[in-house]
Give the backbone structure.
Amino acid sequence: MKVMVTGGSGFIGSHLVEKLIDKGIKVRIYDLQSPDFLEELPEDKKKMVDYYQGSLLEQDRLRIASSGSDYIFHLAAVANVNDVEREPRYAFDINMTGTFNVLEAARNNPGIKRVIFASTVWSYQCTPQIGDEELQEDAPLALPSHFYTATKIAGEAMCKSYSDLYDVNYTILRFGVPYGVRARGAIVTAIFVHRALTGQAITIAGDGSQYRKFVNVEDLAEGCVLSLSEKARNKIYNLEGEEMVSIKDIADAVDELIGNVEIIYTEGRKGDFKGKDISNKAAKADLGWEPKISFKEGLGRYIDWYKKVLSQAQADEKAVALV
Ligand SMILES: NC(=O)c1ccc[n+]([C@@H]2O[C@H](COP(=O)([O-])OP(=O)(O)OC[C@H]3O[C@@H](n4cnc5c(N)ncnc54)[C@H](O)[C@@H]3O)[C@@H](O)[C@H]2O)c1
């Protein structure tokens, strides 16, 4: 089996690529940025991956790059909500035209069995939760208030209509909020850990009571791999963390694991998703997926990894100073 991963150089994509090759699946990474994480892999693993540099906006390149693949995992996107807010036009191009181009590539390469689309639990941003009932994948989605969510719901809609009109199969994965090794600096856990390890205060927008069920990126990547199952054809799955962790809990855990951290509270963000109870039942039943890594364990692993990154950066600075 061969799969193409758009965004395979990114945070979640890199873990997905690692899991795929661990299972003996050949991978092509399609990304604008080169996959630096491959340097960390042993030679025999590296041989199972190739890198095709290209943009989602280059329709012909995408079609050529994906020819010969059995599946496309489509993860490349403007994934940072703040970047989307700052540059909606760019986010429109990458997240909407980009997803359209991936679906077109699949339509023009009939060998591709399915497009597996990285969506988000933010899709439920404005969908009301009735009482204590968890939101399931079939909940009718209310129109969103954040443009990031608008681009993701549009992507989901395009996947469904391409399946109905052109028999391009899909799986939509609504990712929970991930954290873990190689997290982008803009992710809350990464920001808090960086600030704490560099002696800066942690800032919380609002009172910190907004909670997420954070999911470890390795658990998320495992869920992606399991979605290759035939059962997932033309289905939607939530891949959500199961532990309730508030922003304040994260700050407190960082303080506990690192020590002496100052915490400052500021005004809340516009259109912030305050967190909903989202069900993993379907992913458990069909794919046998559930998160396995506890938040504390995952945060500890992240801190260990980030300490190495910081000390490497300091060593590099010293080396430059010596030249
Ligand atoms: N990180 C999160 O909090 C989160 C949560 C839910 C869903 N998601 C979704 O998961 C996916 C992966 O997110 P991530 O956190 O790994 O993001 P990331 O920013 O780490 O990775 C995105 C990758 O896409 C690539 N990319 C961007 N524009 C491109 C283009 N025009 N052509 C080709 N490649 C391009 C980037 O170079 C990068 O390697 C995204 O679709 C995102 O919307 C992310």
Notes: Residues 7, 9-13, 31-33, 55-57, 75-77, 79, 94, 98, 118, 120, 175, 177-178, 184 surround nicotinamide-adenine-dinucleotide (CB under 6 Å). The chain has a mean pLDDT of 93. The longest helix spans residues 295-322.
